[in-house]
Amino acid sequence: MPSSAVTNRPEEVTARLGVGGGAAQGEALLKALREVKNQIIGNKTKKLLYLQLGAVPKIVSVLAASVASSLGGAGLEDAPVIVQAAAAIGSFACGVEDGVRAVLDAGAVPHLISILSHHDDKVVDAGARSLKMIFQSKMAPKYDVLQDKNLNFILSLLDSDNENVTELAACIIAHSCETNEEQKALCDAGVLQRLVSLLGGSSNQKDACLECIKAVVKDNSEVSSRFSCIGNGKALKALSDLIQDRYPYTRLLSCKCLIAIGHASPSYVEELQIKTKLVLVLAELLEEPGRVGDEAPFSLKKLIADNEELHKQALSINVIEKLCNFLHMSSIQSRRLQGILLALSELCSKLEKCRCQLLSPQVYSLNLEVRVLDLVIDSLEHDCAEVRAAACICIRNITRSLKDRLQNLSAGSLSNEAVVIRLVQLLYDPSSSIQLVALGALCNIIVICASRKSVLIRCGGVSQLVRLSTSMDSTLRLKSLSVLRNFLFLANTTDKECILKELSLHTLVSLLNDAEHSIQEQALALVNNLIDGCSSVEHIFTEKCYSLILDAVTRQLKQASSLGVCIQGMFVLSNIAAWSDFDKDSVTDYLIAYDDNHKPSLAIKFLQSNDKSLRLASLWCLLNLTNPSSAGSSRRVTKLQTAGIIFQLKSMLNDPCSDCKLRLRMVLEQCTEFETSQP
Amino acid sequence: MSKKVITRDEWERKLKDVKITKEDMNKLIMNFLVTEGYVDTAEKFRIESGTEPGVDLATITDRMTVKQALQSGNVEDAIEKVNDLNPTILDTNPQLYFHLQQQRLIELIRSGKIEEALEFAQEELAPRGEENQSFLEELEKTVALLVFEDVKNCPYGDLLDVSQRLKTASELNAAILTSQSHEKDPKLPSLLKKLIWTQNQLDEKAAYPKINNLTTAALDDPVV
């Protein structure tokens, strides 16, 4: 490179910046500023280099000096310097966190704000653009709109003829408006009306205003309702028109606005017609490239959330096919993939038809050999944590009604071992929220099908589940316990022994005694599944185990911390009551026991419950205890009679629950047999 | 399957029935001139036809100086000009910025300044590849030009074509238009695309006088 008196190496350019000292002046300073600006725009590496050289505070000092001199009425020369300095500052704040920090620390913002009222349009533009860059960063300070002075200033910006300025105002408001109080203050000041009128401007202005409107109305029912009333519905009409704007990004933003209003204050936007239109528009936007297509599935999910009618609408316009077509693309953006999986999850959360569509072997995307479900399962291994979590949720929702569709399992779907193995891998994920959704998915999948259970054991899933069941996090304990419970449903003896061995008596008892009653309930249900199908205790527990467990069960029944606990506990006793005479006797003794305060016995208490499931569980237990084919039933009936149980049963003949009535009559029949056959 | 045959006479009769106003055509032409940046022509056309450009012609002039600088191979000049026009454009269009840097390298290679080119590739282009993986492939192609003796005839020689400059110029023009809230594509090409698509659709159903040459728009007799 030819040598010259003045070079453009960053160190030397930086040396020429500043006020006084060795810094350049006049034309030379202007050149230096321009040089920095041109070197850093678009160039992250150069930005970082100049940041390290301390260029930012120097440039801000130049800006400050020029602004002061300009306000003093002096130089026309100041304007170009201000423009270049402002542009450089704005560029430092673009896309580089350290840059934003440096700009904020150097105190650039007040100076940039002061030039917004400069007489030279170019200066105003420069200031507005730079401030916009700064306020688009999360690190920018929040503008306190609750202060009158500030609010008035923002309003004056919104009234400007200069689009850069109005866009800036919209940007500041969107960045700073968080609390309901702030939203209300802005609404009271008429900001919404002004924003709506600005919607008639250029497309960049439209977009800025739409983002701003959404920030002001979001999650605020009062402000949203007031928005709906503006111009007697004209404001809403303006938004509705924009969902068919020529630019996809504008369409997306207006959809988001309407969705936000609809969620905050269901009124106008409650109409199915407008929501159906939104589904259509968003379904089309799914296919747009770039950020529009990336964000569209998230908005779609929000729109149709928990709304079965809208799920059906989406289904009828082939939204599922559209979403699935993306899944098979090899290089899909993580954000878009996450959105698509979440949208599919939402659609599968209620409608069986959707789930079938994804499970059916006939549903292929463009590549005929790949099933959609396999693509979702593949996503369980994605690099991005959010994608993994979304894939789990998707699988969990798809398998929701699996228990009811045993026949469909043979269609080959989900017989793939991969899904179990990958979900188990996610049980080791550092993020507990991912562990939780993986547990949710496993819960559904593991219920039926012996082959999946054996995979779970083989890949160490049971060990991890047991580990998680002793986690400090109660939600993890609960969910992992639910998986183990489901695992044990209709399990064979080998599987049961495996679980018991891993779980250990100690853990099981401590879970039965857990502080959370939801966990107690799951633990009891797990015990139920363990003993279900056994005809005696030896099949499953050693005597020591059994008595410890029974102790825990009866303790929880006595404490009766929740309805669920009582019901599950009674199921356990019912199961035991089907065993030997000895077992039946212990259960009977337990049920009729009084405590010192003469509170009613457990049997009476539960039979008198308002909850029919609890009454029914108790009746089943009594049914087993009084079974005529058992030798000791007669003496047990006598005990029950003495304890007033028979009397209680007779008073329940008009039980409102028909199931209860039926069992009740059966018990009484069995008991009367013994009464009459007494010598 | 036999297709319906439409004779030239029938066709021309049908075409006569379609009414298009002069105003609409003028607007299309003006839209093309404005979007592509032909300021002087647009001004003259405005005077002659009374069609309003819809934008301040001064903004077009700015845009055109940028485009011309790029088309003459003065990339640095183009960058400075676009930064004067709106400093946020290149900051928010990383792919465009990369293409401009790439063009600078190409121009250095074209003028035989290999040493400078190497230095530039190392200092300016390599960081782009580090900042953004998706640029690596194009980056490698461009840097590969430095390896060949006979650059024009090497596998990536088309990068040295003027067409590459025009491509980048077009990209830059579109970015400026977008920043000014204008549509970046003129309507005329879209109309022509639609014409071709419509003809392709009709081809499956009928034999008719077809336009095969867009520049002459001559009707070729139906092939029966």
UniProtKB/TrEMBL annotation, chain A:
User: What keyword terms does UniProt attach to this protein?
Assistant: Cytoplasm, Nucleus, Repeat
User: Which cellular component appears as one GO term in the record?
Assistant: GID complex
Keyword hit for Repeat: yes
Q: Which domain of life is it from?
A: Eukaryota
**Cell compartments where the protein resides:** Cytoplasm; Nucleus
In the record, biological process GO terms are: proteasome-mediated ubiquitin-dependent protein catabolic process
Q: Which protein is depicted?
A: Armadillo repeat-containing protein 8
From TrEMBL, chain B:
Q: Which residues form a coiled coil?
A: none
| Top-rank taxon | Eukaryota
Where in this chain does the record put each CTLH domain?
Answer: 59-116
**Which PROSITE patterns does the protein's record reference?**
CTLH, LISH
List, alphabetically, the Pfam families matched.
CTLH, LisH
State the name under which the record lists this protein. CTLH domain-containing protein
Q: What is the lineage of its organism?
A: Eukaryota, Viridiplantae, Streptophyta, Embryophyta, Tracheophyta
